[in-house]
Amino acid sequence: MTPDRPADHLAILTAILEERTLAYAVTDGRLRVEQLCDPADLFCLPAGRGLGQPLLEIAPELIGHEAALDELLAGRLDRLQIQLFSRSAEDGATRYYRLLARPRPAALNGSTAAAGSETAAHAPQPATPRTSGIILFLEDITFIGEIQQRLMQSHNELLLQADALNWANRELAAANQELRKLADIRSTFVSMAAHELRTPLAVMRGYAEMLLDETQGALNDAQRESLETLRNGSDRLLEIVNNLLDLTRLEASRMELVLHALDLGDLARAVAREFRPLLEAKQQSLAVAVASDLPAALCDEARVFQILSNLLSNASKYTPAGGRIELSVGLADTADELLVVVRDTGVGIPADQQDQLGALFFRARTANQMDARGVGLGLYITRSLVQLHGGRLWFESQEGQGSTFAVTFLQADGSGY
Ligand code: ADP
């Protein structure tokens, strides 16, 4: 059913305006308010005020827009909109509004022309016959305004955080650069010191060896013992110095391999030969097993010698006198790899420390208990060298039972060597 009485229309319209928090004012051609409908009190006018008042008094936000108002009155402009502005309500809360001004069709006040012909304060041009004033709509959009405010605030906070992040990044980059510089200095220092130490050490060792050969005269037992201590000490120092040099090379990615297709079995036998006297002195047995018809491995001879020596040396070092050591070379389970395994019956590695093994300078409890000398560099370098060859290193160990270290090397087949 549609209401047919004008009073009904008005009541419905007022209810809609209130529901949507909308108000409107209609002016004459001189911009004086003629009609006002403000069910939600958006204009915030004292009771009885508004009618007959200039438009700019009830909507001061229009001050500064007088030229546009004149254009509206003249019928040359269709709408004037102020998207978002705020007012402080009496309770101090901020409310947000949207305002729309449109020309008032002449038919609305029943007159056709003259309204505009009287000189309006801000309407020097007479209104066209179809425009007899202005209709102003005011809408309370506080919920949108608040969301926009919050968005704006979040946006600004994000900008601030981005700015802080940028600063932090820049500081981090500077700190990184500083760290790199320090690492370079340390590396250069270690490398220079190691180089400087190596030559005199080698000379000392050479003289000790020469005297032990008795080419310069026979030695008594005490002299021989002293010279052996001197030679062994020089050997240990040389090993540490060489490891430090390798470490600086690895850190600076300056370790270069000279790869060839090599017989890994031959290499393993050669390392074993070199170690035999040492193992015999500790009454340790060494069994070497090389599978037959093995393909060649792609490796750097000197570096593989170093890898296997390190594994054998550790096996001997961490195995008490009388223990057994096995060195075997064969095919790995994976298609294109060879496998070298060094097994011992030594002190093993405690289960709770196994995940740290191979970290720089790490030594397990069992090593310290055994009073075996070392600095925790060898395994780190060994693993790095194996990885440089494209291989892997892993181990299994049980405290008090022994350890098994395994490394793989790539087969040379198909690699062009
Ligand atoms: P170093 O022998 O100089 O201490 P490494 O880097 O060669 O240094 O070895 C690191 C640690 O790994 C050793 O201190 C020892 O605790 C442990 N380790 C290595 N090989 C063995 C092994 N065969 N048996 C028991 N522990 C081992």
Features:
Beta-Lactamase, rod-shaped, 12 strands, Heat Shock Protein 90, 3 domains, 417 residues, Helix Hairpins, alpha+beta, binds adenosine-5'-diphosphate
Question: What would you note in describing this structure?
Answer:
By secondary structure, the protein is of the alpha+beta class. It has 3 domains: 6-106 and 129-140, 2-Layer Sandwich (Beta-Lactamase), CATH 3.30.450.20; 150-251, Helix Hairpins, CATH 1.10.287; 260-410, Heat Shock Protein 90 (2-Layer Sandwich), CATH 3.30.565.10. Helices cover 43% and strands 20% of the residues. A 5-stranded antiparallel β-sheet has the order 2-1-5-4-3, with helices on both faces. A 5-stranded mixed β-sheet has the order 7-9-10-12-11. A hairpin with a 5-residue loop joins strand 9 (324-331) and strand 10 (337-344). The chain is rod-shaped and about 135 Å long. Bound molecules: adenosine-5'-diphosphate. The site of adenosine-5'-diphosphate has 21 residues, from helix 7, helix 8 and helix 9. Adenosine-5'-diphosphate is lined by residues 314-315, 318, 344, 346-349, 357, 363-364, 366-367, 374-380, 403.
Helix fraction bin: 40-55%
Tally the structural domains: 3
Helical element count?
9
Query: Could you give me the name of the CATH homologous superfamily of the largest domain?
Result: Histidine kinase-like ATPase, C-terminal domain
CATH class of the largest domain: Alpha Beta
Poorly predicted sequence stretches spanning 5 or more consecutive residues: 110-121
Count of extended strands: 12
SSE class: alpha+beta
β-sheet strand percentage: 15-25%
Radius of gyration (CA) equals 47 Å
Numbering strands along the chain, what is their spatial order in the largest sheet?
Answer: 2-1-5-4-3
